[in-house]
Amino acid sequence: MTEPSPLPRILLMDTAALFPGLQGTLAAHGYEVIHTDPVEVIGLFAVAPPGLVMLVGPPDGPAADVLAYVRQLREQDTFIPVIVFLKEADVALRVRSLRAGADECLDVSIVDEELIAKIDALLRIKGIQDRMHLSRQQLQRMSTNDALTGLLNRRHFEGCVRVELRRAKRYHDPLSLLLLDLDGFRQVNEGHGEDVGSEVLRTIANMITEAVRDVDLAARLFADTFGLLLPNTHLSGALSVAERVRKNVASNTFEVLGTSISMTVSVGIAFFPNKDVKADDGLFRLAQEALLQARLQGPGRIGLFQGRHYVYQDVD
Fold first, then answer.
1. What pLDDT, on the 0 to 100 scale, is given for residue 2?
2. In Å, what is the CA distance from 155 to each residue of 28, 146, 161, 283, 290?
3. Is the pLDDT of residue 120 over 60?
4. What integer is the mean pLDDT of 215-235?
5. Coil, helix or strand at residue 82
6. Is the pLDDT of residue 91 over 70?
7. 147: how many CB neighbours lie within 10 A of its CB?
8. Residue 305 CB: number of other CB atoms within 10 A?
9. Taking burial as the number of CB atoms within 10 A of a residue's CB, which of 23, 63, 84, 209 is the most buried?
10. CB 1 within 8 A of CB 43
């Protein structure tokens, strides 16, 4: 039998003590209540966002600041419901509270049963909003990322290459593209099974990610082919990255499901500025040609395109 989910935490601000019994009522119904003062309230959102906010009193001063902060969170797709409690039966004040961002405006004399029912209703709405937000994030990730490795997928990566190439042309910045192909990967799948092959791909994807900067883009383009886009990177920098990945893969023994596997990777490099890069797909085309030249020389080679084809030889 599964344990029931804990009730969301409620952040309560009642600086004038207009509703002294509120905290006890909430605690009696199982809610964890954080009673805070105006100085600490915004900081608590950053540490541990509450499930619901309760403000006792008019939407002025610190309460207005809290409502403004909650509105900012909603613009970022984070929904936290707010209840404002008022002592005065003032319609204009209630309207002002609602327009300031409150989701409910209640009288401090509200009976416990109605209060708990309204809290439950707001938390149900929050649950729906949270699930919708999570679904949107998952759909967004599915449209841009490879399901197996978590790297960018081919379609999204190719779009990024086009955008970065146009930017590089406009601002005369260097740009490098690496295509990395796993040598003999088909034999891994055929000889050891797809589960082993998938784990090898995930491990190599992690190695590639660790070898680059945060601004660089890594993708899985085909079954055993990866791409790296390095903005503001000259050929020397691209070579350094390619050599680092090549050596890391070659020196690693992949222990997967009781099987030891050794791998090598071939790399093709193209870069801008380059007079041969004319169309938006020019950088990809040259990198593919460089990768082909590398593979023709044997496994674990690095091919360059620099006006003509070269195969890089490691001096070590």
1. 45
2. 54, 10, 10, 15, 21
3. yes
4. 95
5. strand
6. yes
7. 9
8. 25
9. 84
10. no
Listing DSSP states for 180-205 in one string gives EEETTHHHHHHHH-HHHHHHHHHHHH
Section 115-138 average pLDDT? 86
Is residue 81 classed as helix, strand or coil in its secondary structure?
A: coil
Taking CA 96 as the corner, what is the angle to CA 86 and CA 54, rounded to the nearest 5 degrees?
A: 45
Residue 141 has pLDDT above 80, yes or no: no
The tokens describing 117, both together, are 């029912």
Q: Which tokens go with 69?
A: 């902060």
Q: Exposed, middle or buried: residue 190 (CB in 10 Å: 0-12, 13-18, 19+)? A: exposed
User: Which pLDDT tens digit goes with each residue over 266-304?
Assistant: 999 999 988 878 777 789 899 999 999 999 988 999 998
Predicted structure pTM score: 0.61
Name the DSSP letter for residue 223: T
CB 118 within 8 A of CB 126: no
Domain ranges for the chain: 10-144, 154-312
Q: Any bridge partners for residue 106, and if so which? A: 85
CA neighbor of 149 nearest in space, from 195, 211, 226, 201: 201
Task: Report residue 44 as tokens.
Answer: 């608590």
In sequence order, the 6+-apart residues with CB closer than 8 A to the CB of 235 are 176, 269, 271, 304, 306
Cα 243 to chain centroid distance, Å, stands at: 28
CATH fold of 154-312: Alpha-Beta Plaits (3.30.70)
pLDDT at residue 315 in the model: 45
- Is the predicted pLDDT of residue 78 greater than 60, yes or no? yes
**Single-letter amino acid code for the residue at 20:** P
Cβ atoms 78, 49 nearer than 8 A: yes
CATH superfamily ID and name for 10-144: Response regulator (3.40.50.2300)
